[in-house]
């Protein structure tokens, strides 16, 4: 006989775990189901491990360039990938165990380990790794938070080689001699810079004619300039058609073949960073009548409700944002509406994110390309840019790559969007985020007194330079 719960949360990612605890705190008898690692993508194979690698890579980079600041470093700067991985594993392990402990000790929360599948609109089965059903649950409210996984494109010959995704690459203990990366977006570029700074030769294979196709071309060029200067190689307009084990090689050595007579590329390791897909194909959604689109995304309304009453989808599976902070914001929206009588909507959210290359590229709201595509006239739109060379703190740090950009709606004086490619840009962008969220004129930020010397203090100066967009 099925156990009855007031609420069930499937998945313990950045939205699911806090939601389960919050539901339990409200007095609801809550079940939380995790089939693999507590904490979801961010803790285990996403933000936490990769940003620990970013920190190690930056330390190596700073040490190599210490002489630029008048600091002598004796001997050659070396990198021990096994030690870097061990540090990463420690950070990940602490975070993962912390999430599990939090859930197991939460009031009115019962934790189940296993694979959850819907058997009806209000019922879920839980299976052990061998497929044996261990529990049956029925609930009044069900919340899906199952995250995404890496997409590996159907390249001929894949079954005959060893290749890597963002998850498996993090398990290496020996540094790749030559890492080839398929993809030109956030994950691909972060790994490219990490392993180049570790000492690997890195080649990035991009299907299009530039990296970061969703960003303005000037920002893509700015990031490309930095990465190329560090020695990262790029192949544009290239797409693998076949991969083969490299003759005479061992382990993961691979030959990558391209169409149109392009020369083959030999590498010791091949990483696919070509996007992610939702973990929704094995949830039994059809038994509950829950809709999925052709990409596997579960469509939701502004309050994150699915097509079935009393079933919500939060986090990456709903297509409303593929970031840790959007997942957490989903939790806040659902809990506020359900438990506090609020009427918050994801439709009101202003999208913001960062690409954690060094220096980072951070963005909020509309890009210049978005604004122009919308057909806005020059009279209606103000724009300003400023190179990071104008920023005293950047010059003092010796890190002047990049620039800032802001777009403003002239009639209302509201900020439409902003981006920063530059040192500490991922922190400075919050001045724009907060101003846009408050829905106040850009002059509120322009006239604010900022602390000197900081990166943020030049944002009012940037706004001083607003002119009609040409």
Essential attributes:
globular, 6-stranded antiparallel sheet, FAD/NAD(P)-binding domain, 15 helices, Enolase-like, domain 1, 470 residues, alpha/beta, 3 domains
Could you give a short description of this structure?
By secondary structure, the protein is of the alpha/beta class.
Structure description:
The protein is α/β, with parallel strands linked by helices and 470 residues long. The protein folds into three domains: 3-149 and 277-348, 3-Layer(bba) Sandwich (FAD/NAD(P)-binding domain), CATH 3.50.50; 158-274, FAD/NAD(P)-binding domain (3-Layer(bba) Sandwich); 352-468, FAD/NAD-linked reductase, C-terminal dimerisation domain (Enolase-like, domain 1, 2-Layer Sandwich). 31% of the residues lie in helices and 25% in strands. It is built from 15 helices and 22 strands. Strands 1, 2, 3, 4, 5, 6 and 16 form a seven-stranded mixed beta sheet that branches. It has a six-stranded antiparallel beta sheet with strand order 17-18-21-20-19-22. The protein is globular and about 70 Å long.
List the helices and strands and how they pair.
Layout: E1 3-10, H1 16-25, E2 30-34, H2 40-44, H3 47-64, H4 81-104, E3 109-113, E4 115-120, E5 123-127, E6 133-144, E7 148-150, H5 166-169, E8 178-182, H6 186-198, E9 201-206, H7 217-229, E10 233-236, E11 240-245, E12 254-258, E13 265-267, E14 269-272, E15 276-278, H8 285-288, E16 311-313, H9 324-340, E17 352-355, E18 361-365, H10 368-373, E19 381-387, H11 392-397, E20 403-409, E21 414-421, H12 425-428, H13 430-438, H14 442-446, H15 459-464, E22 467-468
Helix pairs in contact: 1-9, 3-4, 3-6
